[in-house]
Amino acid sequence: MAAIPPDASIAVLKSLSQEEINFLLAAVEEEGGTLRPHFDFTKDLHFPQIEGKMVSELKHVIENLIAKGLIDQKLSDRLIACPECGSHLILTYYTCPFCGSRNVLKENLHEHFICGAISRESTVKQGDKLVCPVCKREFKALGKDYSIVGAWFECEDCKKTFEAPVIMHKCLKCGLEFDVRGAKYDHVVAYSPTPLGLEVANRLKLMKAISEVGASSGFEVEWFGTMKGVSGIIHEFSLLIKKQDLTIAVDIASNGNRGLIGLTATLAKVYDTPTVKPVVAIIPKAPAETAALAARYNIVVVEGDTAEVIKERFADVLKRWTGSS
Question: In total, how many domains does the chain have?
Fold first, then answer.
């Protein structure tokens, strides 16, 4: 698998709408890393993880995330759909092939292994027991002394019997009735984050966690904030966290193995902006040489296996700098 360029996740993150962010995070946080739509007869296909929004409402969001290389899709299931309105709110009926009535009785056919008799369910049932109508022996266990070998249907209107009914569907949304030939049979698609999607999501979760700490402490928080350096060059940081005379510049390394690369990029900016308090947040733990290099240039490295750990450790750093308890 090709390596993701260090700046790729930043560029993509900047392009995301709030709806795209919500969908990506839901896919990352879903158990097993795969986001599947749910179906019920009140909402059709929807995502309860994303405020119950319908799949149809999020079509453009999904298409954008796929185009940006953040999620992959795969077949999860199939559902019958109305050929007229596209709804999946479908009822299915067995109908008589002779008169078209829905008043169809279905019975299973039981084969008795001992005597070989094949009998309809109504002739086998005697109270709460199953008894062979031919040899009068009681059926003991399915698969041991009897099996269900098929089904038999009878129209209770025209009284004709048949081996298979005509299957009909009715759309609960528009009322259309249609048969198997007219039905649509739609893919139900599940979504999983790509490696780039995971990196963007990790960066996003770190930025949100650190932002919450800053905001709750009365700081103004700016995402992808810029500062003019002594040299006149405009430098961009993942987060600028400001209050009165204190400005904290935070850069994010969402891939621990890139911690050294991220730190090197931050060094040049910090050297040119000497008034800021520099922080590099890294998930998970960065190589040992990263901490050594950071200490040499008074850059605080905040590491952790999760965004919540980073959040707690950054809160400790903030308390130390502001003198709050």
Answer: 3
Indicate the DSSP class of residue 115.
T
Residue 210 corresponds to which tokens in the numbers above?
Answer: 């650190």
Beta bridge partners of 249: 240, 278
* 172 inside domain: no
Q: Is residue 24 part of a domain?
A: yes
**Tell me, what's the pLDDT at 1?**
40
In the chain, the amino acid numbered 179 is D
Which residue in this structure is represented by tokens 């700081």?
219
For residue 2, what pLDDT is reported?
43
What are the backbone angles phi and psi of residue 116, rounded to the nearest 5°? 80, 5
In a domain, 53, yes or no: yes
Give the HSE-up count for residue 176: Cα atoms under 13 Å, Cβ half-sphere: 17
Report CA dihedral (123, 124, 126, 132) to the nearest 10 degrees. 120
User: Angle formed by the axes of helices 288-296 and 259-272, to 10°?
Assistant: 10
126 vs 44: CA distance, rounded Å = 42
Look over the chain and give the mean of its residue pLDDT values, rounded to a whole number: 90
Instruction: Name which of 273, 250, 270, 88 is nearest 183 in CA terms.
Output: 88
Name the stretches of the chain with pLDDT < 50: 1-5
Specify whether 74 is located in the same domain as 116. Answer: no
Give yes or no: residues 147 and 236 share one domain.
no
Considering just the CA atoms, what is the radius of gyration of the chain in Å? 32
d(CA 208, CA 254): 13
